[in-house]
Write a structure and sequence with these properties.
Elements lengths: L1 E2 L5 E5 L4 E6 L7 E5 L9 E2 L2 E2 L4 E6 L5 E6 L4 E5 L4 E5 L1
Antiparallel strand pairs: 1-2, 2-3, 3-4, 5-6, 7-8, 8-9, 9-10
Length: 90
């Protein structure tokens, strides 16, 4: 769980491939679910487990334009909030 630098948005994860983005000013008016999982074409088999594991932790970047998450597959995933898509996977 993290709050952006302007304290406008809160993000949290729940052991799945999604990060929830909540607008703190309105709470009910805006809650987005961001998918950091792999698409069907990107999935892979690893010891019998389908890739794209759950997000264990998440944090806003310093400028608040990206979200960085660590998943249970050992990957670090960057989500670009301006483009609304995963921008990098390490």
């Amino acid at each position: 769980m993290d709050v952006d630098v302007n304290e406008q948005f809160l993000i949290y994860s729940s052991m799945d491939t999604y990060i929830r983005l909540v607008d703190l000013a309105t709470l009910k008016a805006k809650q987005e679910i961001l998918n950091l999982g792999r698409t069907r074409n990107q999935r892979y088999e690893f010891q019998g487990y389908r890739g794209g594991g759950g997000i264990l932790s998440c944090k806003f970047s310093g400028d608040g334009k990206e979200i960085v998450g660590g998943d249970r597959d050992g990957e670090i995933v960057c989500y670009d909030l301006t483009q609304n898509k995963v921008s990098a996977r390490v």
